[in-house]
Structures are given as C-alpha cells and as structure tokens.
Amino acid sequence: MPVKVNEMAGKLSLRVNTTKGDLDRDVTGCYISDLLSDVMANAQEGEVWITLQTHPNIVAVAVLKNLSGIIITNNRNPEGETLKKAEAEGIPIMLSASSTFETGGSLYRLLRC
Amino acid sequence: MTLRRIAEILDAEFLVTAGNPDTEIRSVCSSDLMSDLLHFAGKPKSLLITGLINNQVVRTAEIADIKAVVFVLNKKPDRETVSFAADKGIWLLATRLSRFTACGKLYGEGLRSCTEENGHD
Amino acid sequence: MTKQHCEGSFHLVGGEFTHAGAASSELKTILTGLGISAELVRRAAIATFEAEMNVIIHAAAGVIHYSVTPEKIQIVVSDMGPGIPDIGLAMTEGYSTAPDWVREMGWGAGMGLPNIKKNSDQLKVESVVGEGTTIEIMIIMKGGDAGEGE
Lengths: 113, 121, 150
Prior knowledge:
heterotrimer; B: alpha/beta; Udp-n-acetylmuramoylalanyl-d-glutamate--2,6- Diaminopimelate Ligase, Chain: A, domain 1; 21% strand; C: globular
C-alpha cells in the first residue's frame, strides 16, 4: 500500500536533501537501478528510484518518468548541480547511509509487497 | 543460506553452474556500478544482484571474489559472457523479478549486504 | 613461498572493452600462484583493475608493469591519455570525467582513484595534461604472509 514520501523518509531514516521537493506524494513502488537507460525503459510513474548515481542526469530521468523521488545510497551525496536541478523540478532527493540492498529491502518491507 | 535456496526464493534459473548449489551465500550486493562492487569487495561468499549484463560484470565479480551473479528482469548475458563466467567458475542466474523485489525477498529472509559496516564473518 | 623476484608487463589498448580487465585478471592469477595471501591478491587485483579501466576509458594506450619481491608488490600503470588537471579533485569520491555511455556500461561513477588508494599501502599519481598519467601502486607484504590465505 502506498505511503507518502515524507513518511517513507522517516521510517527508513533517510536524510531529505532537498527543501522544495514534493514530500506529500504517494510512493507507489520502487525501482532500483544505476543505469539511466534501464530506468527510462522500466521504471513506473510514482515509484521512488534507489540508485548510487549522483550526477545531474538523474533528475532529468526522474522528471521524465514522473518518479516520486530519488534515494541515493551508501552515504553518497548528489553533485551540486544535481541538487539545484532537483530543487528546480520539485523532485525530492533523499540520502541513505545504508547500502542499496538494505535500503531496498527495508522499503520492500515498508510497502508490504 | 544456500544458493539453491536463493534460486528458489527468486524463482531463478541457473545459467552457469560452478559446483554444488548447496554452497553457502553469506552476503548480498546489489549494484550496476563496477567500482561500487570493488569498493566493498572482500566479504566472502557473496552474491551480486544486478541488471547489467555485459562481460564487465563477470570480470568484476572475478576480481572482487564474488561467487554468484543474479540478473534481474529476465535479462540474460550473451553466449561469450556465459562461457567466460563458466571458465572463471562464477555462478550466473536469471530471475524475472525486479531488482527491488529480489532485494526485498532476500532481505526479508535475513540476508544482509556486502558492506564493511556489517561486521566480519 | 613467495619467489624472490617476479616481474612482467601488460599492454593496454584504449577503448578496447571486450578484454578490459584481462590484464588484472592475469595478474591476480600470477600473484595467487606465487603463494601470496588472498587478501593481498584481491587488493592488488582491485587496484590494478581500476587503473586498467581508467586507461581503457580515458587513454589511447597504456602499460601495466608489475614487480613482486618478498617485501612488496609494485604495480605501475602508465598511459598516453589526456592527463589529470587536478589530481586532488580526481581523488574525490564521485568525481568523474567519464562520458555518459561509459556510465551505462557500469563505469564512470568516480570511484576509480579512491578505490586504488583504498587498496594501496602507498600510491603516487603523476600526470601531465595532454601527455598522460602514471600511477604507482605499492602493497607491502606482511611478515609470514605468503601462502597463508584468508
């Protein structure tokens, strides 16, 4: 069942890096990939995207696919340009101190898939 | 958990067998980025879940001592990559599940990741 | 027991991804055959692999030269590539100059030099923009290391 982006960030102990991202959106699911072409082909609207990539192109992809947000794992930080673009587009970027496996696993549990 | 059990949970088929499927897997990595795997290499008996199917994945698995690779969304590497993995003794599996579902199921069964922070075996 | 001395080299062709990593893989086999511990072999292989990929991704050509003595493993990777204008910046995790198509192959995440540093006991990077880069990796053998494995 969907949870709000805000609620997900709280339950997964994610640090919300953006200030203007829409945190009230429903997270309808999740897509995990570090390959932009793969996300473009397979991610669904409303899903939150878990990745290690930090470069600005990830925002463009999230916008195009109408994703509910991006979670960057392993304590990585988005590039300055990435954050700026995300703020401009209202895409929440959240940071996880855990690995992709653990972050995805916890989210799977939360969404009770 | 055995590789056999993991294959059952993920409803995965074996593309390359490299020994006894009751071999133990203790930790899981999930990444499409090779340097990330190399950064966290060193955990013994580890398995990789990825959507990247080029030969680099097998090469990186070999260098990083990753025992088995599971490809998601029914993606399958080409014949050269499969025989390359067979030469190097690296298990290859394919599941129709997404990376999210595959991670979710294995995490739910208690497996944890290859990161250093998770202690030592 | 580690042999007294062993050395060799591999030539690398820029842009050649089909066999990318083959040199590092062969070096790994050689080091294992010398009875060096699994941990040191893995570190040497990872550091060499990242350096090899840097050459293949960025340079026209390069050479890996390795030298093993009872005291240390030394790997020198030299290339004819664009050079690195700011080595400090290049050592930052996440900083990458790789083109997008390289990212789609699973590389270019900006972890190459940091990974090399992480796996080396000593690392020297020298570069001239427009000419190329030389990376010198040193891994020190601990006492009684040979053949024990991990």
